[in-house]
Amino acid sequence: MIANYHTHTWRCNHAEPGEEQYVRNAMKRGLQILGFSDHTPYPFPGGYTSSFRMRVAQLPGYCQCVQELQRKYAGKIQLEIGLEAEYYPKFFPELTAILKDTPVTYLILGQHFTGSEMDGVYSGSPTENPGVLKAYCSQAKDAMQTGLFTYFAHPDLIHFTGSDKVYREEMSGLFREAKSCGIPLEINLLGLSDGRHYPSRRFLELAAEEDCPVILGCDAHDPDSLLDTAMEARALAMAAEYGLTVLDTVPLRNIQTLLR
Q1: Domain containing residue 169: CATH number
Q2: Distances (CA, A) of 249 to 32, 91, 186
Q3: Domain of residue 238, residue span
Q4: From CA 22, how far away is CA 224, in angstroms rounded?
Q5: What 3-state DSSP class applies to 127?
Q6: How far apart are CA 128 and CA 257, in angstroms?
Q7: Domains: count for the chain
Q8: CA 99, CA 95: separation in Å to the nearest integer?
Q9: How confident is the model over 7-22, as pLDDT tens digits?
């Protein structure tokens, strides 16, 4: 790997602190690009506060922190300011409004809930309900069609345990849309190291059938995870087994340009 665009900070309430150590470990590993993409703040109504993302008031400090690191490590490593964001149709306009004219450069799509976390279903919960799978795929397609997302993080987070035929139909359609929109799919190294249900073999098979390019993402929640080359080797072997094209880097879709 020469680039990792999927890196979290302590502000999401479930990652370890030490932004500079993430940078140092990325350099030690030999990365040329490190993108910070912590869980986006969302301006929810009614005073609702999410437990797994930064708050809106923390966004300026997040940007300032990475900007300071950009200056300190200029010429040594390319650092980018991004966010991992769900597409919540009811609240997305408010999100883009607070992101406009900030130093945030890119978004990666991490669709953790259908609907929203206020009223929807967690995508990673096992379900045999085809309606949940269809809602996930529909919402992710709408997200990609906005043109604002650089890539799709852990697209196989959806934990559908029902009919293989239904899974194939819905996910193949999702991956065709990703390819049409020019959005790479992520092989998630955190899921691999933790033994989660993703990255899944079904995902890899269908991504290969639809000829979708993939990118490796550390999904780093602690600095030491950026030194784990064993997971990279496993992911590359899985990608090779299915004949997938693994991208070294992806062009960032600059949301500041797109939101003007």
Answers
A1: 3.20.20.140
A2: 10, 30, 12
A3: 3-258
A4: 8
A5: strand
A6: 41
A7: 1
A8: 6
A9: 999 999 999 999 999 9
